[in-house]
Every structure is written in C-alpha cells, then in structure tokens.
Amino acid sequence: MSLIVLCAGGHARVVIEALRSRCMRPAAVVDRDTTLVGGLVSGVPITGPDEDVLKMSVGQVELVNGLGNRASRADSGLSGRRELFGRFAALGYRFPVISHVSATIASDATLGDGAQVMAGAVVQPAARLGRNVLVNTRAVVEHDCIVGDHTHVAPGAVLCGGVSIGEGAHIGAGAVILGRLSVGAGAVVAAGAVVARNVGAGAFAGGDRIGSR
Ligand SMILES: CC(C)(COP(=O)(O)OP(=O)(O)OC[C@H]1O[C@@H](n2cnc3c(N)ncnc32)[C@H](O)[C@@H]1OP(=O)(O)O)[C@@H](O)C(=O)NCCC(=O)NCCS
C-alpha cells in the first residue's frame, strides 16, 4: 500500500516527519500547483497534480492531508483542508490516522479517519476526535473532550477536560479552553486566548491586542 501526501506546503513537511518517526515513507506528494511538479518536499518527490491520485485504485493507495490553514478573525481558513479530504474520501480513498511517535494517545481515545496527532501532543482518556481533525505540535486534548470533524487544535493549545468543539473550528496556538465549555462549529479562537465562556458557532474569541506600536 502506497502513501501519498496531498499538498506540498509547510504542513506536508510536518506530516512527513510524523510518518518518518514511525518508519513510514510516503511514495509521493501531489499538489494542484503543477509548477511544483519535479520538486521535493522533505526529500519526497512531487509527482503531479491532485488528480494523479485517481490513477490509482482505492485499494492501492492511502492518503495523508498535507494542507494546513491560516485563520483570521472572520474565518477558520479550514475550507481548503476540509474540501481536499472530502473530495477524496467521497471517492472511497482511505485517510489513515497518523501520529508522531512522540505523541501520547490514551488507549480508549477514539480517532476518526484521517485524524492527525503531531509531535508531543497528548490525547487523554475517552477523548473523541472526528475525521480529518488536526491536533498539532504539543497540543493537549484532555479527558472526555469531543473534537468535531476538520477542527484544528493548533500548536500548544490546551482543551481542558470535557470540552466540546464543533466541526471546522480553529483553536489558536497556545489558547486554553477551560473545562466543560463548548466552542461552536466554524468558530475561531485567537492564539493565546483564555476561553472562560462558551463560544458560539462561527464566533471569534480572544485576540485582545497587547502592547503598542
Ligand atoms: C486572531 C487571529 C485569528 C487574527 O487574524 P487576522 O484576522 O488575520 O488579524 P491580523 O493578523 O491582521 O491582526 C489584526 C490585529 O489583531 C492583533 N492580533 C492578531 N492576533 C492576535 C492574538 N492572537 N492576540 C492578540 N492580538 C492579536 C494584531 O496585532 C493586529 O493588531 P493591530 O490591528 O493593532 O495591528 C490570528 O492572529 C490568530 O491568532 N490566529 C491563530 C494562529 C495559529 O493558531 N496558528 C497556528 C498555525 S500552525
């Protein structure tokens, strides 16, 4: 079974590193930007556009989502990552769960297809991660948390026990969500925010400017 990474950006390098930590080597990277074809991502060849995947049957290849996101106050920026996963999953292609060897995942945590747990991250007992969820470098998902499909828990963010996050939300780097709170679908939590109240769907939380120009 070959592994192919979708998208040749910065997150692709992070997932390739996670795969290598488990002695897995992707065969290729594909990217919609055909000018990149012939190049390398962390030593892995960029062999063609996304559609090249379709030359292989669903039984021959597994896919890894290498597309990251850039959140803004207005938008989680996750639609591209979500669309890429959805397009190929709908055709029957499988996205395995991937985790860096240094990640800690409780034995009774559940992870949906394509969930990614990066270096140093911790997923604690009875946590439930949806499909295509990204728990990024050194993030913490405490016991009994529920994380909806496509959500990104960015580097160093902490979800305290029993937190519930909807689909497609961005929890910014280093943010802390206090226990048992909920963050709605598509919401954006700023990097470094401390969330002490529920956050509604599509809402923005945090981002108070500190310092002066
Ligand atoms: C809050 C955030 C979503 C705002 O993004 P944006 O809408 O593009 O806004 P900008 O970056 O243009 O910043 C707008 C203002 O907010 C300030 N600001 C941005 N992020 C901030 C934060 N996390 N906390 C406090 N202030 C912040 C900026 O300094 C700027 O201030 P100014 O208007 O006085 O110049 C973004 O900065 C953020 O925190 N994203 C999460 C980053 C992350 O998790 N990355 C992980 C990648 S792996």
UniProtKB/TrEMBL annotation:
The keyword Cell membrane does not apply. One of its GO terms (molecular function) is acyltransferase activity. CDD domains: LbH_AT_putative (cd03360). The active site is at H143 (proton acceptor). Pfam families: Hexapep, PglD_N. The record marks D144 as: Increases basicity of active site His. InterPro entries: AcTrfase_PglD-like, Hexapep, Hexapep_transf_CS, PglD_N, Trans_hexapeptide_repeat, Trimer_LpxA-like_sf. Keywords: Acyltransferase, Repeat, Transferase. Acetyl-CoA binds at H152. Substrate binds at G68. Residues 3-73 form the PglD N-terminal domain. Belongs to the transferase hexapeptide repeat family. This is Acetyltransferase. It comes from Bradyrhizobium niftali.
